[in-house]
Amino acid sequence: MKVKQILFVLLILVLLLTGCGEKEPPKEKYLIRFIDWDDTVLLETTLEEGEDIVPPENPTREGYTFIGWDKEFSKASQNLDIKAVYERNKYLIRFYDGSGNLIKQEEILHGEQITPPNDPVKEGYVFVGWDKQFDTAISNLDINAQFERLSYKVRFFDDKGNLLKEQQVFHGENATPPMVNDRDIEEFSHWDKSYENVKEDLDIIAVFKEKEYSIEFYDGNTKLFLDITKYKPSEEITLPIPTKEGYAFAGWFLSDISLFEVTKIDSSFRGNIKLYSRWISTTSEQLTVPEGGIEFTQIVKKPHSSGTGFVYQPEFPAGAPSTSVLQYD
């Protein structure tokens, strides 16, 4: 019994001696901080030596791209301030002439000033600006020139200064002229300048020319080819005197039965004219008068008649009134 008690006491002593042995020292702790570009603390943590350092989610910064941290890290071994590192974004800025042709291209860092090219030129158009607002670079940009089509004022006048028509015409297009009426002795000829492919303001004046008419000469139904073929109302023309064997020229008339001879063309005439010649035979014929003569008791009324080179034209009896032409026609 005593032996058991002694063994128990010895066991207790061994246990007590074991529990009173040297303890393991505590591990070091370190302050780990992740800091943004503007010194904002993104993450702060305390880790024991040897613990894994876990970074926060990648931070963002307007106009920049996050490319990593300024220090390498894996396990905690000291206090650390780890700072985010960024790269400034570059943007492709392209300017086009409005027809798809590139006129300027450059890469610009975020926030830098965008400088446009010289104002583009396009024939027949005026440059009015770009299709996008821009100041500093914040993204890739395709910028197109904008134009307005040029137009011009085209006015048509007569030769007296009267406005006939006014219109706006786009660059390179044709104006539409007004209708111009002929005048008494003048007709419209042309405009004093071209109204096609307009490239400037224009005042265009109508040009007139005097009307010109034809003159035809006939001997009966036979057309005569004489030197005079045309006339103008402003001109006075003395008519030619043709010749014909066996006949004396008796004048020009407007028809075979006209009573009025035309000796010249003057301002009273208008339009195309046909003139017919009359002739007097120069061949003499002998007439035997019966003894005692021939007595006329009346003039037989006949309608006007005509033939080649003559018109029947009776003489009035002596004493007939001059107003009685129709009675003796």
Helices, strands, pairings?
Layout lengths: L1 H18 L9 E7 L5 E8 L15 E6 L10 E9 L1 E7 L5 E8 L15 E6 L10 E9 L1 E7 L5 E8 L15 E6 L10 E9 L2 E7 L2 E3 L5 E2 L5 E2 L8 E7 L7 E2 L1 E2 L7 E9 L24 E2 L2 E2 L18
Parallel strand pairs: 1-4, 5-8, 9-12, 13-20
Antiparallel strand pairs: 1-2, 3-4, 5-6, 7-8, 9-10, 11-12, 13-14, 13-15, 16-19, 17-18, 17-20, 21-22
Describe this structure in a few short sentences.
The protein is mainly beta and 329 residues long. It has one helix at residues 2-19, and strands spanning 29-35, 41-48, 64-69, 80-88, 90-96, 102-109, 125-130, 141-149, 151-157, 163-170, 186-191, 202-210, 213-219, 222-224, 230-231, 237-238, 247-253, 261-262, 264-265, 273-281, 306-307, 310-311. The chain folds into four domains: 29-88, Immunoglobulin-like (Sandwich), CATH 2.60.40.4270; 90-149, Sandwich (Immunoglobulin-like), CATH 2.60.40; 151-210, Immunoglobulin-like, CATH 2.60.40.4270; 213-281, Listeria-Bacteroides repeat domain (Immunoglobulin-like, Sandwich).
